[in-house]
C-alpha cells in the first residue's frame, strides 16, 4: 500500500459461495410461493446467505485492521455504499409508486373517472375512496378500521427521529475521539431501534386482531404490509449493523479519521429513518 499503490484483495471464495447460497434461497422461495412447500430449502439458503455475509465482512474487517486499505479503497467503499443505498431508494420507490398508482389512477378509474373510466362497468356500484374500506369485489373483505396516525405511528416516528439524533451524537463523538460518548449514545440508538421494532409488532397484532387489516384485506391491506413490512425488515437489518458497530467500538476499533464502517452504518440508518417519514405521511396520514 505504500508509495500510493492500490490494494488488490486476495482471491476470495465468498462471491461464488454467496451466489450459490442466494440461488438456493430463491429456489426455496419459489417452491413456497408456487407449491406451498419448500420452507427447509428456503431456510437453508437464507442461513447460508447470512453465514457468507458474516464471514465476508469478517475478512474485510481483518484486512482493514491490518492497515491494508488506502485512500483509493476508502473511495471505493464510499461509492459502493452510495450505490447500495441508491438501489434501496429505487426498491422503496417501486412500492411507493404502486401505492400512488392505485390511489391516483386505478381506484378513480373503477369509479368512472379519467381516461379509463370505462373500467367502472366492472363494478357499477363501486365508490372510490381511500383508505379503501369496501373493495369493489364483494368476495374480498376490506379492513374494519384504520390506524390513527397520532397514536402508535406517531410514537414510532418520534422514536426513529430521536434515534437519528442519538446516532449523530455518537458519530460526532467518534470523530472527536470521545469513545465513551460514542458507546453510550450508540447504545441509546440500539434501545430506540428495539423499541421501534417492538411497537411495530404490537401494531401488527392490533391490525390482525382488532382492525381487520390483513394481507387479504384488499389493496389497502396489501400495500400497508408491503411498505411497513419491508421497512421493518430494514430496521432489523440496520439495528443488527449498529449492534456490530457497538461490539467493534467495545473492542477498540475505529479512530477519529478512520471509521468508514461506522459511518456507512449511519448512512444506512438515516436512510431507513427518511423512508419511515414517507411511510408515516403517505400510509398513515394522507
Automatic annotation (TrEMBL):
One of its GO terms (cellular component) is plasma membrane. PROSITE patterns: COX3. CDD domains: Cyt_c_Oxidase_III (cd01665). Its main location: membrane. It is found in: Cell membrane; Membrane. Coiled coil: none annotated. Residues 2-286 form the Heme-copper oxidase subunit III family profile domain. Its EC number is 7.1.1.9. This is cytochrome-c oxidase. It comes from Halomonas heilongjiangensis.
